[in-house]
What we know:
Blueprint: H1 3-12, E1 16-17, H2 24-27, E2 32-33, E3 37-42, H3 48-61, E4 65-70, H4 75-83, H5 89-94, E5 98-102, H6 105-110, H7 112-123, E6 126-132, H8 134-138, H9 144-153, H10 157-177, E7 181-187, H11 201-204, E8 207-216, E9 219-229, E10 238-244, E11 247-254
Parallel strand pairs: 3-7, 3-8, 4-5, 4-6, 6-7
Antiparallel strand pairs: 1-2, 8-9, 9-10, 10-11
Amino acid sequence: xxxxxxxxxxxxxxxxxxxxxxxxxxxxxxxxxxxxxxxxxxxxxxxxxxxxxxxxxxxxxxxxxxxxxxxxxxxxxxxxxxxxxxxxxxxxxxxxxxxxxxxxxxxxxxxxxxxxxxxxxxxxxxxxxxxxxxxxxxxxxxxxxxxxxxxxxxxxxxxxxxxxxxxxxxxxxxxxxxxxxxxxxxxxxxxxxxxxxxxxxxxxxxxxxxxxxxxxxxxxxxxxxxxxxxxxxxxxxxxxxxxxxxxxxxxxxxx
Length: 255
């Protein structure tokens, strides 16, 4: 059997999970390879959270379990945002198909929520996970109560940021070890090197998708680009997309 045939056989054995985004799955051979950790990077308002929610919706519609971890929005805020696109996160929670976890600086400092989260991930069979966002967790601000508690324990300020970065790595490793297809949303700041503000997640990623929004002629031109995705042939080109009442829809037009 020659090398070309070997490649074709291996690709046929890759199980893929659809993102739920019309047009994107066609570009990545049907979906994200199962168990991959994919970073979705972009600036504020570029559509990162919506893409994560859409991946959750696609999983639930396949009758698979999903988990959404947020360090940016409260539980009820997430439910309200998802409902704008017709995704009933509240109902899916009641049915046991979705778990929403909100993290704050105190949760990260004490570590109890992370331990509880690890227990849930170990016990449940999640197919898809979203971390919103990697950047917010790694750069979680230090609160006054954190400083007071830290001073009593002899912990210096810079240690808090190391704890946050360690939490990011722990979350990524937990998902990968369980074979959960995970979307790590990450902030991109213009003028900074690399694709993500945290400068951490992209190096552990199996895939990297970038979202952007550029003003052209008084309107926003939203773009998406798959820059990296292991086990997948990609063209690496930039395409446009739009928000619709049912989520993100790609336009089959290169920029």
